[in-house]
Fold:
Amino acid sequence: MPDLSRLLRDARARLSGAGVPSPAADAAALAAHVLRTTPGDVTARAARGDGMGDEQAAAFEELLAQRAARVPLQHLTGRAAFRTVELQVGPGVFVPRPETEVVAGVAIDEASEAARRQAAPLVVDLCTGSGAVALAVAVEVPTARVAAVEVDPMAHAWAARNVAAIAPRVDLRLGDAVHAETGVLADLAGVVDVVVANPPYIPPGSRPVDPEVADHDPPLALYGGGDDGLAVPRGVVASAAGLLRPGGLLVMEHADGQGPGARALVGGSGWRDVRTVDDLTGRPRVLVARRQ
Ligand SMILES: C[S@@+](CC[C@H](N)C(=O)[O-])C[C@H]1O[C@@H](n2cnc3c(N)ncnc32)[C@H](O)[C@@H]1O
Structure:
């Protein structure tokens, strides 16, 4: 029976050699996936001198080969953690990122505050992908009503799976987040308390460096369109203007470096308290603006 600690040591070296940014954590996560346990338990078993069964070692080897080829860890485990929820993910849907947890947090704080004043605040997640933000809001603000919009049928199918598993009350719709106030969300025009979005925003020609992103996240989830990558975000802001009630809040993620461009989208009358919030690493990544 192969020795677990030696398998993990070899796996770390192999992933490190392939340029994987977090080889130790990924090796432990893949071993945990194969052994149907937690990474912490894998470490404990390795420290005890436990082995791994031959079949499990073969499965681990297969997963390592794919991770070394830079298939995203979350596609291999089929799971992505996001705040209080664990999402099912795979090919065809954007893997939720830690920085978006800050975006969701601003929306959740606002919805929690609204929930103290009114019965059931309404939150809309535009460009929902796996449903990460909408589902975190639904779980963390139990009295909130939550609607979510996704245009890509494949991503929408992943979101539908997650909604069914985590919070079936989320009202998931297939449609365009641009002009949502007259389209897919026309029935919610003018009555929404919080619009939150992590839209695509990468400018054309800026290919992401990491193969996990460039080769595995859907292009529709990455590139925002227009010269500056802000065509979809611009449409999201226009939708938010039509969806939010007076005093409602817009929270939208953008790229580092797009802060001034994003703030300009809410530069006209109709918005107040415009600010940019930093992500967990101190980079300006979130546009926040309140409807007049
Ligand atoms: C960057 S991903 C974010 C997904 C999810 N909100 C998250 O943070 O993990 C952007 C998502 O927006 C979707 N999308 C792109 N253009 C859209 C549009 N016009 N209307 C609705 N969804 C759109 C993409 O398919 C993708 O799922």
The pocket of S-adenosylmethionine is lined by residues 94, 96, 100, 127-130, 132-133, 149-152, 155, 176-178, 198-200, 220-221, 232 (CB under 6 Å). The CA atoms of residues 264 and 274 lie 10 Å apart.
